[in-house]
Amino acid sequence: MARLSELMAVLLKRNIMSRKVINYITLILLMLITGLFWGTWFSLSRSMETFSVAEFIHIGKTIIHNVANPMKVIMPACILLLAISLWQYPGKRSVSFYLGVCSFIFLIVSLIITVGIEVPMDNQIKIWTTETAPLDWEAIRNRWEFFHTIRTFISLTSFAGFTASILFMDSSQKR
Question: What is the model's pTM?
């Protein structure tokens, strides 16, 4: 993370990364985060109560394995770039700037839900087997799903806010 921020500082100093490029990369990263949450919610979460304990554990472990490491890079990079985008924002008293600030806040809330609630439950699920799953595994699943749903819609709001922030930026500020 420190190397990434050092690289970003050098690129910004040398004007290699314009505000447009930073906004574009930030938007792509935010889209990846939101898409991951949305895709899981839309395709799996709404029907999780129909899975047996074995199916739930298998699906959970597979998703955790596939998502954990990439998100350790994507989420911090997105937060860093969104912060840089706001720092560079030309019209800091504009409605579009405040949409960007709200987007940043929602992304941080999404991170807090992920790290403070979802990951601890994921760490429990990672060590479960069909035989060792707790008797209240369904309550844990339901709690995970509840917070995943909240996180999904918070990230959608973050994505919408940042997109609007860029789209509605005064044309004199876009350069």
Answer: 0.84
